[in-house]
Amino acid sequence: MTLIPLMGCSIMKRTGPGRVAKPSKVRRILGYTPEVREVRQAEDEVNRISSRLLDAMGIPGTPSDLPAAAGPCSAVDPDFTTYYIVDHPWALWRADADDFDTAMENLRSRLPGMGWHITKDGPQNSMFRNPEIIAVHTISGHHVAIEALKKRSGDLKPQISVTLVSPCYQAPEGTNLSRA
Description:
Blueprint: H1 23-30, E1 35-36, H2 39-57, E2 62-63, E3 69-72, E4 83-93, H3 100-110, E5 116-123, E6 131-137, E7 143-149, E8 159-165, E9 169-170
Parallel strand pairs: 1-9
Antiparallel strand pairs: 2-4, 3-4, 4-8, 4-9, 5-6, 6-7, 7-8
């Protein structure tokens, strides 16, 4: 699975165990001030974005039914107490691998009109060199990595793999993220 660059949560320096960065440091580390947002609202938004990405592919198949879920924004809050991201890894199964090129071409042409800026469009740096698109939503700050895994090791079936990640959010005061 491809790591999504610049999401500002898990790939940058950490604050240290058991600590949450101060708001001024949060902005410095992430490059933005996280929006205060209810967890359920953020999860619902990511699920809706995933649905629009599926529609943009424009091919038949069966999406996995794993919903989006909140997790730690580890660059500033590794203990998951105040800041969080919403992650939604999913896949399109039972799609004809012959349609994968169509799906990727549809995404190339449709994502910009949906507010996405494509930052990578080319083969993966792997043995099979499967096509990959990485994009950031210019308004919301969500990141997505989409891989058309036509060729895979062993008996693994072809799939289109999608990893959608939100920017970091700040939970409203009084929110217990471990129960969100």
